[in-house]
Design a protein that fits this description.
The complex is a heterodimer of chains A (321) and B (369). Chain A is mainly alpha-helical. Chain A has 15 helices and 2 strands. Chain A has one domain: MetI-like (MetI-like fold). The chains are: A mainly alpha (321), B alpha+beta (369).
Chain lengths: 321, 369
C-alpha cells in the first residue's frame, strides 16, 4: 500500500483498485444504507436542487416554470415584509436563544442542588416541555389574556399593571419568549446531565483553595459545560430560525380582532417571522418561486450561523476528552 | 462550608467544637430552606400554567370569565328535591334573601321551590334577582362536550376523528422510523466500507436543513407527481427512509455492543443480516425504545407538516384540529383547555411509564421538534 495519505485516499475512493473483500463490504454497506440513500436523494437532495431552480423562476402550484433569473431575489430585497420578517426572526434569535440558554442553565443548577425531593422537582420542571406545542401555545394565550389571564392577575397582586401581551406589538414577542422559556425542559435536561458530569474533585480542589460558590461556578462549572453550551446554542439557533407553529397559532387566535385581513403576523406584523412569511408566500399567495428564494436564503443563513458559532466557540470551549 | 473545614481541626467534644457544629447546622438549615424556596419559586412558573389549564377545563362558561380570578373551578350547588337534582340559588325578595332551588327556567324568568318545604313554590321570579350558589367542583361535562364539539359540522369530524388520525400517523411513523433507522445505523456502525465517514457527514448535515427549505418541492412532488394530496402518505412515507437524529442515536448505541459477540456469530457461519437481526437488534431494545418514544412525540406534536398536507377536516390530526378549534369567532376557553388536556394526557402517561427513555432520548439527540 502506498505511503502518502493522499495516495491512500485516492486508493480508497477508486473502486477499480479495491480488493474483492472491500468491494463486498461496500456492497453490503450500500445495502444497509439504501433506505437512507434513497430517502436522501428523493426527500432532501432533490428538493434542495428543485427549490434552487424554483427560486430563479416564476412558479406556482400546477403551473409551468417561467425563468426570471434573479428577479425573485431582487424583489425580496425590496420587499418591506421580507425585512420585517428578517428583523423579527433576528430579534428572537439574538435575544431568545441566549435567554433560553441562561434560563435553562440556571434551572439546571437549581435541579442539581442536593435537596430532598429533588426528583419530584425535576419532573415538575420538565413536564411543560412535553406538552404538545399547539396545546402549550393555546394555554399561554389564555394565561396571558390581559383581563382574565393568570399572569396579569398575579402581576396585579404585586401592584403591576400587566401589558396587553399579544394585542400589543411591543409585547407580542416577549410573550412568545415566555412561552419558549416555559417549554425549555429539553435544554435544561441536557445541561443537568452536563452538570452531573463535572468532576467532583475539581470542585473540591477549588473549594480547598478558597473559591466561593460564584468563583467555582465561573471558573470550573461553566467552562466544563461549555461544549454543551455550544451544542445547545447551535441546535437552539436552528430551531428558532424555523420558528413557526407558535407564531402561527398566536395569529390565528387574534384573528377575531382583524376581521377581513389576513391574521398572520398580527399585531402590526410584530409576529411576522421568517418561516411564517415564507409559508404565506408559498401556500397562501402561491408565489412558490419567491418562497423558494426565501428558503435558500434561510438555509444559507443557518449554515453561516452554524459555521461561525462553531468557529468562534472553538476558542472558548474546553474539551476534556 | 468553610466552617466545616475549620471545625474539624478542633478537638472533638470541646465546647468550641459543639458551638461550631450547632452554628453550622443552623446555617445548613437556612441554606436548605433558601434552596427549597428558590426551587419552588421557579417551579411555580412551570407548574401554575399546567394547573391553570386543567382548572379551566373544568369550569362552567360563566366561571371562566369570573372576576376576581379564581384558580379552582366552581359549579352550582345542587340540592335534591322530591328525588330531583336542582340547582340552588340565592333569591332576593325585597331586602330578604332566601335559598331556593330552581325548578324551571324560561327566558330569564324562573320557577323556584323551597328545598326544605317542597310544597312552598315561588313561580315567575325574574332571574336578575337570583344568584347561583357556587361551590368548588369539577364540570366533567366539558370533556364530553369538547369531545363532541364540532367546529366544522359539515365535515362530520370530531375530536375522536382527530385522535384516531393522530394515532394512525404515529403508529406508521414509529414502524417506519424504527425499522429504517435500525438498518441504516447498522451500516454506519458495523460495516467498514470506503466512503462511510463521508456519507455520515451528509447524514448529520441534514440536521441543518430547515424544513422550510425543502417543503415546497416536496409538496409539489407529493401532490403533483405522486398524487398523495389529502392523504397521510406525505407524512408517513418519508419516515420509512430514516432521519439523522435516530440514525445517529442508534449508531452510537450499536458501537457499544461488543464486536466479539458478532465475531462469534460470524465464526458459526452467520451472515451479516443474521448478525443484525439475531444479535444486534435483540441487544438494542433500550435504544429502539428511545427511538419509538421520540418518534411518537414528534408525530403527535407535528403541526406544520399536517397543516400543509391535510386539507379536509376528516383527516386532520389532533394538533391541526385543536388549532382549528379556536379558529372560530368566540373562544370557548373551558372547552379548548379540556381538548388541550386530552391532547396532552397520552404524552404525560407515556412519560411516567418510560421516563428513562424520554431522558435518554433528549440526552442523545437533544431536540426533535
Amino acid at each position: 500500500m502506498s505511503a502518502s495519505p493522499a495516495a491512500r485516499i485516492e486508493h480508497a475512493y477508486n473502486p477499480f483498485t479495491w480488493s474483492k473483500r472491500t468491494r463486498r463490504s461496500f456492497q453490503l454497506g450500500m445495502l444497509f444504507l439504501s433506505p437512507w440513500l434513497i430517502g436522501f436523494l428523493i426527500f432532501a437532495l432533490y428538493p434542495m436542487v428543485a427549490s434552487l431552480i424554483y427560486s430563479f423562476n416564476d412558479f406556482s402550484f400546477h403551473q409551468a416554470l417561467k425563468w426570471v433569473g434573479l428577479k425573485n431575489y431582487i424583489d425580496l430585497f425590496q420587499d418591506k415584509y421580507f425585512w420585517i420578517a428578517l428583523a423579527n426572526t433576528g430579534y428572537i434569535v439574538v435575544i431568545g436563544v441566549p435567554l433560553i440558554l441562561v434560563f435553562s442553565f440556571s434551572c439546571a443548577v437549581l435541579l442539581n442542588l442536593k435537596v430532598p425531593g429533588q426528583s419530584i422537582y425535576r419532573v415538575l420542571y420538565y413536564i411543560p416541555a412535553i406538552v404538545p406545542l399547539v396545546a402549550s401555545t393555546l394555554l399561554w394565550i389564555w394565561v396571558l389574556n390581559p383581563q382574565y389571564g393568570l399572569l396579569n392577575t398575579a402581576l396585579g397582586f404585586v401592584g403591576i399593571d400587566g401589558p396587553n401581551w399579544f394585542r400589543d406589538p411591543n409585547w407580542s414577542k416577549p410573550a412568545l419568549l415566555l412561552l419558549a422559556l416555559w417549554g425549555t425542559g429539553n435544554t435544561m435536561i441536557i445541561y443537568l446531565s452536563g452538570l452531573q458530569d463535572v468532576p467532583v474533585h475539581l470542585l473540591e480542589a477549588a473549594e480547598l483553595d478558597g473559591a466561593n460558590w460564584w468563583q467555582r461556578m465561573r471558573h470550573v462549572t461553566i467552562p466544563m459545560v461549555s461544549p454543551i453550551t455550544v451544542y445547545n446554542l447551535i441546535i437552539g439557533m436552528i430551531v428558532i430560525f424555523q420558528y413557526f407553529t407558535q407564531a402561527y397559532i398566536f395569529s390565528r387566535v387574534s384573528s377575531a380582532n382583524y376581521a377581513g385581513q389576513s391574521p398572520i403576523g398580527q399585531p402590526l406584523n410584530s409576529t411576522l417571522f421568517y418561516s411564517i412569511y415564507l409559508y404565506q408566500n408559498g401556500f397562501q399567495f402561491l408565489k412558490m418561486g419567491y418562497a423558494s428564494a426565501m428558503a435558500w436564503i434561510l438555509f444559507l443563513v443557518i449554515l453561516a450561523c452554524t459555521v461561525v458559532s462553531l468557529r468562534v466557540s472553538e476558542r472558548y470551549t474546553y474539551y476534556s476528552g | 462550608m468553610k466552617s466545616s473545614a475549620l471545625s474539624s481541626t478542633r478537638a472533638p467534644g470541646s465546647t468550641v467544637e459543639r458551638r461550631g457544629r450547632r452554628r453550622h447546622q443552623a446555617k445548613k438549615i437556612v441554606q436548605d430552606l433558601l434552596k427549597h424556596c428558590l426551587i419552588i419559586g421557579v417551579g411555580l412558573f412551570f407548574a401554575l400554567p399546567m394547573l391553570w389549564m386543567v382548572a379551566t377545563s373544568f369550569k362552567a362558561d360563566r366561571d371562566v370569565f369570573h372576576t376576581p380570578l379564581r384558580l379552582l373551578p366552581y359549579v352550582n350547588t345542587m340540592v335534591t328535591v322530591n328525588g330531583e337534582q336542582l340547582p340552588l340559588y340565592d333569591v332576593k325578595f325585597g331586602d330578604q334573601v332566601r335559598q331556593l332551588a330552581l325548578v324551571k327556567l324560561q327566558e330569564s324568568i324562573g320557577d323556584f321551590v323551597d328545598p326544605h318545604d317542597p310544597t312552598q313554590t315561588f313561580p315567575n321570579v325574574r332571574m336578575k334577582f337570583a344568584e347561583p350558589i357556587m361551590q368548588v367542583g369539577f364540570r366533567w361535562q366539558n370533556y364530553i362536550d369538547a369531545m363532541n364539539y364540532n367546529p366544522r359540522s359539515a365535515s362530520g369530524a370530531t375530536i375522536f376523528t382527530y385522535l384516531r388520525n393522530s394515532l394512525i400517523i404515529c403508529l406508521f411513523g414509529i414502524i417506519g422510523t424504527t425499522a429504517s433507522c435500525a438498518v441504516v445505523a447498522y451500516g454506519f456502525a458495523r460495516i467498514n466500507f470506503p466512503g462511510r465517514n463521508l456519507l455520515f457527514i451528509f447524514v448529520m448535515g441534514t440536521i441543518m436543513l430547515p424544513f422550510q427549505a425543502i417543503m415546497i418541492p416536496q409538496y409539489v412532488l407529493f401532490n403533483d407527481v405522486f398524487h398523495w394530496g389529502n392523504t397521510f402518505l406525505p407524512l408517513i412515507v418519508p419516515q420509512f427512509f430514516g432521519n439523522a437524529y435516530d440514525i445517529f442515536l442508534l449508531r452510537q448505541f450499536y458501537r457499544t455492543i461488543p464486536e466479539e459477540l458478532c465475531d462469534a456469530a460470524r465464526i458459526d457461519g452467520a451472515s451479516e443480516l443474521d448478525i443484525f437481526a439475531r444479535v444486534v437488534i435483540p441487544l438494542s431494545t433500550p435504544a429502539l425504545a428511545v427511538v419509538m418514544i421520540t418518534t411518537f412525540l414528534f408525530n403527535w406534536n407535528d403541526f406544520q407538516g399536517p397543516l400543509i398536507y391535510l386539507t379536509s377536516p376528516k383527516i386532520f390530526t389532533m394538533a391541526l384540529g385543536l388549532a382549528d378549534f379556536q379558529g372560530q369567532r368566540q373562544i370557548l376557553w373551558n372547552m379548548l383547555m379540556a381538548a388541550s388536556t386530552v391532547f396532552t394526557i397520552p404524552i404525560i402517561i407515556a412519560f411516567f411509564f418510560a421516563q428513562k427513555q424520554f431522558i435518554q432520548g433528549i440526552k442523545l439527540t437533544g431536540i426533535k421538534e
